[in-house]
Amino acid sequence: MRKCINLEDQPGFASIYAPQMQQAIDRGLEGHSGKGIIDWGYTPPSPDTKPGRRGKGKPVKKLPPTPPVDPKVVNPVVSGSDLHFDYLFNTYGTPEMRALINKYPKVKIVAYNGGGYFQPGEGQYGTVYTSKGLDTDVSTLFHEYGHALDNVIGIDVHKDSNSMGTSKFFINEFLKDGADMGMVLDDAVYWDYIKDNGLSFAITDRRMFNVNKGSERKDVEKLMNPGDHWRIMKEILRVSKEKVKKATNTKNPDPVKLARLKDKLITVEKLYDSMINRVKAAKEIRKLVMDSKLGISTRDEAGVFRQRGAIGDILDALTSGELYDYEVATGENFMLGGHGFGYYNMRKQSNGYPRNFSLDGGMFFRRAEIWAQFFQFMLHQDNTSTGLMKQMMPNTERKFNELIKEAQQAKLDVAEAFKSPVFNPNLPILN
Amino acid sequence: MYTELELRYYKAKTLHLEKFGETPYFMGIINPSADGEEYIELINKALETNKPVNQLKSAPVKMQSSNIIF
User: Residue ranges per domain, chain B?
Assistant: First the structure.
């Protein structure tokens, strides 16, 4: 039988200090209705869906009414979407790139202040989602429209049925430039080591990292949390040194085995040093960017201040997210921008699941983002970033220009558009 | 080496890491030197409400799809 007691009568009750319990009692007495009606056990209503993420950028004071297109503007863009976006293209874009935009079918642009993105599967050529009324409008629109044209030119000029079919043509160039910059490394020794030896060690104070011998890269990467790539590199170096030390300190060292272990250690040390040098190079690039006009530009509607993050994102793409991984593992901060964990590789994102399941999947986003950043720089009338890119990635810049020129000069098969299932020849033509 | 804004952002990020054991996660292009103010605001709110910042987890389902490009 349950026995009820009165807590207040118990000895020592008055001296209990429990603010959370007191708060809960007070809230209960107040009632969720807020009218002082005690409603114990009542579950307060909550929204069915979680609210979406907040957009980046601060609202500009108040958007003035979008002015009509100035007749003096050369090659004005008429996107068919919100006039605000036409205004941004016509005010901050270059006439040459506006002509390119005008040449190709217009992609639908939707105002969305939850962060810009491009959805290639929505509509015939995809849909751009971009902010309106924030000081990030120009950079987001130009970046996302870069994705859109990557897709449109791929379909119309390169006859590629897969999405983002133009950026695939400059992969070799950015990989070469990336290697010259010290960003793209040959890390075969890293994955070969794991495949040959497996791994089992305490990767952090709270977590073990266990991988069996014979595991392929994709099997290993999908287990890796942010920061693990660098932690594993350090472990491989430690174990390789340990093995050489152990083999040397035996009574009768096997010369063949010892030589083999030393050779392996040299290759591991070489990769480790390359990774350290990559961080140094990234810091130098950061300095170069911050000393330029990009570093001192302020938050204004032209959005030049956001291009420093775009250059950081190119480094993030070149290194498949390994610089951000290094930041997490070491606590050092030097990256100017990027796309977050798991976007450019097969490792876990921040929700605990991988986004890509193959190297090709990671490469798709690497090329698409580098293309969109180059496009953004080229479209903008401010050419500081284009100048920096010419200096840092000359081959990529040259190839990008070639692809843009090809797209400018391409003869479009207009009839193709009429073969689209969207077009219905039975409909009357309205004049 | 860092701007004042970045230093404030890194400080907020460290507080977030210390409290929740994970760094705050912002979806799409991360640009602390330009968008730091918004990140700091979100981190401060997370510290107050005891809910870590992870925009990927709280984003609408269609934005979590791997088919979209940021």
Answer: 4-64
Predicted confidence (pLDDT) per residue in A313-351, tens digit: 999 999 999 999 999 999 999 999 999 899 999 999 988
pLDDT band at A49 (very low <50, low <70, confident <90, very high): very low
Please judge whether A337 and B57 are an interchain contact, meaning their C-beta atoms are less than 8 angstroms apart. no
Residue A299 in contact with partner chain B when CB distance is under 8 A: yes
CA A130/CA A144 separation, integer angstroms: 7
Q: Do A226 and B23 touch (CB under 8 A)?
A: yes
Please indicate whether, in this complex, the C-beta atoms of B69 and A164 are within 8 angstroms of each other. Answer: yes
Kindly report the length of chain B.
Answer: 70
The per-residue pLDDT for B55 is: 87
Location of structure tokens 């070639």 = A402
Amino acid in the structure at residue B56: L
d(CA B53, CA B55): 6
For B28, the closest of A115, A305, A361 (CB atoms) is A115
Which of B33, B56, B67 lies nearest to residue A308, judging by beta carbons? Answer: B33
Q: Give this prediction's pTM.
A: 0.84
* Contact status, residue A78 vs residue A86, Cβ threshold 8 Å: yes
Chain B positions touching chain A (beta carbons under 8 Å):
1-3, 6, 10, 13-14, 22-23, 25-35, 37-38, 42, 54-60, 63-64, 66-70
Residue A25 to chain B, least CA–CA distance (Å): 20
Mean pLDDT, range A152-173, rounded to an integer: 96
pLDDT of residue B56: 84
Which of A351, A353, A365 would you mutate first to test chain B, the one with the most B CBs within 10 A? A351
d(CA A201, CA B6): 34
Q: Tally Cβ neighbours within 10 Å of residue B52.
A: 19
- The C-alpha angle A84, A294, A95, rounded to 5 degrees, equals 45
The shortest CB-CB distance from A309 to any of B14, B33, B67 is to: B33
Q: Within 13 Å of residue A149, how many CA atoms lie on the same side as its CB?
A: 28
Q: Are strands A127-130 and A108-111 parallel, antiparallel or unpaired?
A: parallel
| pLDDT tens string A229-241 | 999 999 999 999 9
